């Protein structure tokens, strides 16, 4: 059984995801997507490196790595708990801040997100590559678009643009070998059986 709430350990990669409470929408306009990413950066960039993402109307996916920033004076066992707790607290603040803005915009009240975000530890380069594809292909899997490569709210096209950003594009392209191989991998019809263990929707 998959552990969705394992500790967030420095240096490790994670697939982080969450959805709207009762599957309600998280995004109502184009500016909401931009605001969400900006608030994510404000709250989490100190703790996480981001490699891929996709924002869909009622849920989101991120591929992140926990930065190694803890001082050596903290004991390893205590450090794992401390880092994981701090990141969880940053997510809580991020969700609260974004929820307040959406509640005001939509004249709604109550929780916007499911109570706690989920994460899955990524344990191999094969897993990383398949997960990048899975995250980018999500809009097609949910029948939101026919061609996920044209979807505006994922990192697929941004990874291919050579402009500076906090998105770790070079590292992602390196997993595939080159920009051309990254494109080819996404262009090919991936066998869902190869990535079904990485799929999390019920």
Which keywords apply here?
single chain, 202 residues, alpha+beta, Alpha-Beta Plaits, 4 strands, 44% helix
- Structure annotation, total helices: 7
How many extended strands?
Answer: 4
CATH topology heading: Alpha-Beta Plaits
Q: What is the share of helical residues? A: 40-55%
Q: Could you name the ranges where pLDDT drops below 50 across 5 or more consecutive residues? A: 71-75
Level-1 CATH class name: Alpha Beta
Mean pLDDT: 89
Q: What would you give as the CATH superfamily?
A: Transposase IS200-like
Largest sheet: 4 strands, antiparallel
Secondary structure class reads alpha+beta
For the record, the CATH architecture stands as 2-Layer Sandwich
| N-to-C SSE string, H for helix and E for strand | EHEEHEHHHHH
Number of domains: 1
Strand order of the largest sheet: 2-3-1-4
Globally, the shape reads globular
Describe the protein.
It is a single chain. The protein has helices at residues 30-44, 76-106, 125-141, 156-160, 169-176, 179-187, 192-195, and strands at 13-19, 48-56, 59-66, 118-122. The protein has 202 residues and is α+β, with helices and mostly antiparallel strands. The chain has one domain: Alpha-Beta Plaits (2-Layer Sandwich), CATH 3.30.70. It has a 4-stranded antiparallel sheet with strand order 2-3-1-4. α1 runs antiparallel to α2 and α5 (169-176) packs across α6 (179-187). The chain starts with 12 loop residues before the first strand and ends in a 7-residue tail after the last helix. The model is unreliable at 71-75 (pLDDT under 50).
């Amino acid at each position: 059984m998959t552990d969705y709430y394992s500790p967030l350990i420095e240096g490790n990669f994670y697939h982080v995801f969450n959805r709207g409470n009762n599957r309600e929408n998280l995004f109502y306009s184009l500016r909401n997507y931009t605001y969400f990413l900006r608030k994510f950066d404000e709250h989490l960039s100190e703790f996480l490196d981001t490699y891929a993402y996709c924002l869909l109307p009622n849920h989101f996916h991120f591929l992140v790595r926990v930065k190694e920033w803890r001082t050596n004076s903290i004991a390893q066992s205590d450090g794992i708990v401390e880092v994981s707790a701090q990141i969880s607290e940053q997510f809580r603040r991020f969700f609260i801040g974004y929820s307040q803005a959406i509640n005001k915009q939509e004249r709604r009240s109550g929780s916007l997100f499911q109570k706690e975000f989920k994460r899955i530890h990524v344990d191999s380069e094969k897993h990383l590559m398949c997960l990048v594809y899975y995250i980018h292909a999500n809009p097609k899997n949910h029948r939101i678009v026919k061609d996920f490569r044209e979807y505006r709210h994922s990192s697929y096209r941004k990874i291919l643009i050579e402009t500076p950003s906090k998105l770790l594009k070079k590292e992602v392209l390196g997993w595939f070998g080159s920009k051309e191989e990254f494109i080819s991998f996404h262009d090919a019809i991936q066998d869902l059986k190869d990535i079904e263990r990485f799929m999390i929707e019920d």
